[in-house]
Amino acid sequence: MIICKKCGHEGQYEGQLCPVCQTRYTLTQNEVRILLEETHAARARREMETVTENYRMLADFGVTEAEREHGKHLEEEGRWEEAAVLYRRAAIAGDATGAYRFALCNPELDERARRFWLCYASVLGAKESYFPTAETLSHAGDDAMATHFYKLAADCDDTGAIVMLARRYADGEGCEKNEGYAKWYLDKFSIPPIHALRLAYRLRGVTAQEPPTPDYEKYGEFLKSLRRDAYRYGFFGAEKYLAELLMGKGDVEATMRLVEIYQRECETEDENRRAKATKNLLSALQLASAGGSAEAYLMLGDICRYGKYGVLKNEKEAMNHYAKAAELSSGDAYLILAEMHLSDEYGKKNIPLAIRLLEEGAKCGSDEAYRRATMLKDEREEAYRRGVGRFASDPEGAMRDFALAVSMGYLPAQVKLADCYLKGVVTRGKPDKKTAYRWYKSAYELGVDEAITPLAFCYSRGVGVAFDNRRAITLLKKGMALGDMRCKKELDRLCQNRLKKSIRSLHSQASRLLYQHKYEEAFRILSTLAKMDEAEAVYFLGACYEFGIGTPIDRPLAYATYRRASELGFTDERSVRKAIFLKLVK
Fold first, then answer.
1. Which of 362, 360, 355 is nearest to 380 (CA)?
2. What residue spans define the domains of the chain?
3. First to last CA, the chain
């Protein structure tokens, strides 16, 4: 009996439509449970007509157990095609027996499809399918998996599987030869079957050894192959179940296939199914991303960026997902990150970073990233060239061009921008030396060779920064190595100044020593200065020889030294300098 939810008509179930109001019948989960309980009770009482009628009705409403059991009834009546339809529905819903019966009773299946459903039934746990699956795989040449399913059948006490395994191990057919393993399987029989007596006689005296556990890595490959066959044949329900098995084993490819399936399910109008599919989708994406799937990270990034599937918008989290996809060499991820940095929507625009991201994306094979990077680099170089071209006639316009090129990450433009500040383009002719120095230094630190010479001059002449001869000389030498002759002239000037400073220091030191009556030390310093052709020091050295200051008196040598000082351009006609010298030594 069934009751129409709309008009309340109660009657015998004849079809899915109410005979009174022509409304489609519906059953609640509670009604399905009650009907199944009544059916099980009727079967226990052997009221087979009630059992058949209830299973027929429940099968029409998609109850998997009813589809399988009603399929058996149709198969007994010889209605193979109708039974096959029900078995297939039960199999797709994950019913092991349904899958096995579908493989056997569907006359339209080709050999490969039949093998798929047998294998699928075995994966679902249909014990009766283990042995035929093993036989089928053995004929197909997959000995490793055939042995696996023979073992499963043998564990279920299948006589044929036990004898087959014993023979395979004894003869080494499709597996390693090991009579100890063969003996172990034959020992399962208290009395061997008649067709295994010859083998038992052959193995008498052999010590039994327990075979090793199955190779689950090969089983995983078998599941992958089975999932691909399900996709190829359009058995999408079976494919989903197999993909879920593989997802549990960490298979990223199967997990991403499940993501596609869940995405389609998210479009359903049923709110409960949609909520479940959404939860499954997000969970699958998390697993796939943890397994190293760049595509999963991209999808998670899109979900956070646009707020899909009930997830709140979170641009920061989205960028984190895109960054992880980029680390996995996803050109699309680099492209998306670059677009986000080119937009003001996600924070301050950063064109140089966007260009670097696009270049990385191009290395990962993204043609679009290569095109965008080339376009942006051409734009900034064009701005730089335009600024150089009109610097003399329109310095303010040139400075805007240089600033644009700098904002786009074109490093040589920093040097030109510094030139603008040094020439006072912004401040109406008054140089902004400190800002110019900062730009020169920034360009140099970023590896721009054009910044070496102007930065060296800043240090050597104190432009925008304190004098620093050491840094200046270091930079000037680098500039000379690059062939800039201005650096050589500036380095010569610095060296001359440094020499003059040293000479003045030595003169001062010699005078102080003479005043302190430390004549020998003063004499040594004056001798050093004389070797450097310092005319005044040569003259004072002559006075030392004449008056015996720090050395014995030697007037001929003194007069020769005086002449040398005169030749070097030193004159003291009234002996004023000599008087100062003598005054120091009194």
1. 355
2. 126-214, 504-585
3. 142
